[in-house]
Amino acid sequence: MDRSADIAIVGAGIVGLAHAYMALRKGYRVVLFEREQFAVGASVRNFGLVWPIGQEPGVGLNRALRARQHWQEVAAQAGFWIKTNGSLHVAYHEDEWNVLNEFMELYKDAAYQCSLLNASQVIERSPVVRAKNLYGGLWSDTEGTVYAREAIRKIPLWLQEKYGLILKFGHVVTEIAVPHIKTARESWRADKVFVCSGADFETLYPEIFDQQPVTKCKLQMMKAVTAKPVSIGPTLCAGLTLRHYAAFAECSSLAKLDERYDQQSEDFKKHGVHVLLAQNEAGELIIGDSHHYSRTVEPFDSEHVNDVIVDYLRSFVDLGDFRITERWHGIYPKVQGNISLVIEPEPNVTIVNGLGGAGMSLSFGLAEELMDRL
Fold first, then answer.
1. What are phi and psi of 295, to 5 degrees?
2. Contact predicate 277/197, CB 8 Å
3. In this model, does residue 230 exceed pLDDT 90?
4. Which letter does DSSP use for residue 317 in this model?
5. How far apart, in Å, are the Cα atoms of 26 and each of 7, 33, 128, 373?
6. Contact, 351 vs 341, CB < 8 A?
7. Domain spanning 87-141+214-335: which superfamily?
8. Does residue 1 carry a pLDDT above 90?
9. Rounded Cα gap, residues 314 and 271, in angstroms
10. Which of 14, 51, 182, 256 is the S-S candidate for 43 at Cβ 3.0 to 4.6 Å?
């Protein structure tokens, strides 16, 4: 077998898959190494959301909007479900409504595709939203949903079939000295290497990661099913989300919202809780999440944190009876002060990391930029 390639990619999560896709489209011979038999990291332990509304105007928003287009193209060809269902940020307090109005005024000329809805219009979009005390909401047209577990499994197989991607699942890359790449089983040659290793800072270039402002974030999530079928419409979130995403950080009215939530419960900030509700093709609900930051994360999940998440969820949606069918945690890499970490530890090797919780939203856009530089 010819164990050589133009480009080698380490990691078959969404960051690695996006880089493989962009390289293959340009005609490069690509080999993809993944230590597991299939991807099991943060790329399959998330909401499956493409979420431009969370990005600040400029690089992040533009990258996310391009990624959204790529997701639609890839889903159509690879044969997995995608729904361009948009998003709703709902408001039940004056401070939340003020933030949404300030956001609209602040970014009226930005590339967001948003509008403010009154309470009746919100309910028309999503009948599960609680009507009592509802001020209204921020509708955004740009968000989409995939079922991450399905998409991340299908994309590499489709790339293999359509473009000839060389898949090496179950191969841990232990050494890189371009053009040489060693795994526990094989030796390869490649002209360029992209290391997309997610929250694994320890296997390759640990000394480089030690020099960077990177950490790991553990998030707790759940899957639920309702007693009676429901359709939530767009992906839903409420006031807590406004203080989580950078898109709202410049809103001066956020300070009062922040203060009220701190007074309401110390658990929200202590556990980094903001709540999103997504729905997959089978009608199952994806609920989350929390955020705990550390270079080594605690392996044990807190049922109290799950309760905080579910209690807040119930404050803005009425799903009837539902039961939790799965609980899990994910771990993603986070870089301080930036939306990604792209560095070259040695010639012809590029580390791509630190996309935080926006890997699904940004990876295709970032990979497109990096491959265009080759």
1. -70, -25
2. no
3. yes
4. B
5. 11, 19, 45, 12
6. yes
7. D-Amino Acid Oxidase, subunit A, domain 2 (3.30.9.10)
8. no
9. 18
10. 14
- Residue 105, number of CB atoms within 10 A of its CB: 9
Paired sense of beta strands 136-140 and 49-50, if any: unpaired
Distance between CA atoms of residues 62 and 115, nearest Å: 19
- How would DSSP label each residue in 218-260? EEEEEEEEESS-----SEEE-HHHHTTSGGGTT-TTHHHHHHH
Same fold, 4-47+149-210+338-372 and 87-141+214-335: no
Say how far apart CA 114 and CA 131 lie, in whole Å: 21
What pLDDT does residue 304 have? 98
List of residues 6+ apart from 153 with CB closer than 8 A: 38, 39, 44
Residue spans per domain, the chain: 4-47+149-210+338-372, 87-141+214-335
Mean pLDDT of the chain: 97
Residue of 118, 357, 67, 105 lying closest to 241 (CA atoms): 357
Residue 165, token pair as written in the block: 């991607």
Question: Cα–Cα distance between 243 and 231 in angstroms, integer?
Answer: 27
Which residue's entry shows tokens 């429901």?
230
Label each residue of 63-110 as H, E or C: HHHHHHHHHHHHHHHHCCCEECCCEEEEECCHHHHHHHHHHHHHCCCC
Domain 4-47+149-210+338-372 matching CATH 3.90.1170.40: the answer reads no
Q: Which SS3 state, helix, strand or coil, does residue 192 take? A: strand
**Length reported for the chain:** 374
Q: Which two tokens stand for residue 21?
A: 């896709």
Dig out the tokens for 133 from the structure: 């005390």
User: pLDDT (tens digit, 9 = 90+) per residue, 267-313?
Assistant: 999 999 999 999 999 999 999 999 999 999 999 999 999 999 999 99
